[in-house]
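Practice record 12: protein with guanosine-5'-monophosphate.
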Amino acid sequence: MNPFPIILSAPSGGGKTTIARQLLQRRDDLGYSVSCTTRSPRNSEVHGTDYYFLSLTEFIAQREKQAFAEAAVVHGNLYGTLKVEVKRVLSAGRHVIMDIDVQGAKQFKRAFPDSVTIFVLPPSGEVLLERLRARQTEDRQQLISRLQSALLELQAIDDYEYVVVNDDLEQAIRTVSSIVDAEVVSRNRVAGMRHSVAAIIGKLEREISNQES
Ligand code: 5GP
């Protein structure tokens, strides 16, 4: 198997983190890339599991060392994917699933062109607003910033190969899982495919010339 990166993006509250977590529980061919962020941990978040929570100085030091495959400012905080995290998962033979914003996804796809890009779309504006408000983890200013980010995210949808509407969570998880299955057998990814096909063609050509002689 040829493991590849899977990028999930969505407006905040779109459900992509839940989808990624569920897929990680259900499939042992997937691994997660833990991102770095300068934002503070929320409630039960754990350093090294949910994020690497870095100070601004630590984040900048990593960026100067070219440690990030991508990095972006998302509603006022810095977020970045470490190259070593991605390589750790891929070299263990697993597809690496990432929950990153649209700016990061664009940079990441340039660095890893074989990435699969999936946009998770809320079923309607009402549902998106409801989900954003239900978070209640932020003050008014942070909510406005999340609404503005959601706008930017939606405007980048054309950069993605797949769109999954998250109306029914279970269905959305299954659809993302099917996309992964389909990508595994997509022509460009099948390892040794050209060699196998060339061998089959050679056999057919020899058989044709045998039959004709
Ligand atoms: P939250 O702070 O709610 O966990 O995440 C906020 C936003 O940051 C989400 O849109 C999420 O996809 C994005 N994000 C999380 N990790 C990364 C990352 O490593 N790089 C980028 N560019 N965005 C990220």
